[in-house]
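Researcher: Next sequence.
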Amino acid sequence: MGLLSTIFSKIFPSSHAGTPSSTQVPQQSAAGSPGTAQQSSTAGAPPTPAIDVEKVLNDMAGRNSQKLNWRTSIVDLMKLVGMDSSQAARQELAKELHYTGDMNDSAAMNIWLHKQVMKKLSENGGKVPQDLLH
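Model: Next structure:
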């Protein structure tokens, strides 16, 4: 299991098909309203409702003894979901997500990683606040 899949498994309930997959790409509704993702059509299966990522992570943060800023920090996000947040782990995640920048520039890589993880959560059935997708 890759690191992104591990993050997904910590945020999405086991009944939610929130694992990265090319066959389950959320799409905006006809009205185009953000956060109303639906799974691509699966023969007769009802769409899976979007998981409120912000609520899930805020709930986790509320139960955590550390003050972690998951909204801006990939390190804190990884800590919050119980993962190794070391430089080596973040570099592994960067490779998994095809980061092309300098892996020794940890600040730039961390910012990119956070944005990519939020984007992937959104693309795979998560309702992510718009300010975290830019």
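Model: Residues 3-12+24-132 form one domain. The radius of gyration is 15 Å.
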